[in-house]
Prior knowledge:
148 residues; alpha/beta; Rossmann fold; four-stranded parallel sheet; 15% strand; globular
Amino acid sequence: MIIMQPANRKVRILFLCTGNSCRSQMAEGWARKLKSGIVEAYSAGVEPKPVDPRAVRAMAEVGVDISEYRAKDVTEFNNVEFDYVITLCDHARETCPLFLGAAKQVHQGFEDPKKLAENAESEEDAMRHYRRIRDELKAYVDTLPESL
């Protein structure tokens, strides 16, 4: 079910992950690039950490610049009324705070590329994981908001 918006208001989506360092940043970047006409995208973390340079690199490879993005604590958005809060990892789903208003919580989990890359034999091998998750996130974001 899509939440009906006034004709001039975009659907507000918060992508939530544990650290707001990788997956949620990439999802926000994709939403801003692919859906800027209909989605107002945000990202945050329940335990923010600095933005992952490999996530920045992976997105830059496809023409999406997230180099100026910063990790944000979910509490920064206490006064924003979201239509959807999309958790991208299990930890965020389990610890997701309640949001005021009509926000519908949706979970769409993605593997953590940083964790996948921990035992990579080379930088290129590590980047393979980031690229795969980047592409999976693009495919998901491309379905928004209709799929919600």
